Every structure is written in structure tokens, then in C-alpha cells.
Task: structure prediction
Amino acid sequence: MADDPLLHRAHADLIAQRAAEQLRELLKTVADRIDPFPPFPGAMFVYGIEVEPPASGGEDHGCVILGEDGALYELQIGLDEDQVGSGSPVAMRAEARVPLDDLPPAEYVGYAHRAVSAAVEHLLAQRD
Result:
């Protein structure tokens, strides 16, 4: 049974899960240190730090950002069709942060590691 390849995969999955949990806590800690949290460039209502996708090439999640709560989100910017014709460009703009809560642990680890790096870079820039 010790040579069962499925056991190796299960072991790897447990390691990824543990790393994801630790990174989730670290992101909350790092995000708490950022004050003020920056508005996302080009957004009117959203605060966040852009997270580059991991090089592993997983699923495309669009523009991923780190929120002020330490969670990862996909930023979606579009047009509020109900407000078209209102004459107000601000009212017609729709911005949404979609939580990326359902990322598999191994994919989350890649994004979370990049998010920690981006947040640390922001903190270092705030020092200057």
C-alpha cells in the first residue's frame, strides 16, 4: 500500500492545503498592515492591489486583486445596463469584486504567494 501512487497525490494535496491555510492567514496579517489601502488604478470604487497570475498557467481569472480584508478577488469592471441613458458616466460604471474562494489549494498557493509579494512591495514603497 505504501507504493500506491494515489497516496503520494493525497500527501501532496494535504501539503498544498496546509500551505494555502498558512498563506491565507499571512495575507490577512499583511493586508492589515497596509494603511491606507490603495484604490485600484483605473477603478472608481474598488480598493486593492493587483496580483500577477502564477506562472503555472492555471485557469484564467481575469484581473486578480488582494482586497483590504486579505482575500483574493477577481475585479470585474463593466457597464450597468440599467443606468445607460442616465447621462452620468459614474452611474453607468459597474465594478464588482468576485471572491476567489473556490480556488483549488495548489492554485491558491500560487496566487497567494504572488499577493504576499505584491503587498510587501507596496509596504516597502509606503516607507519611502
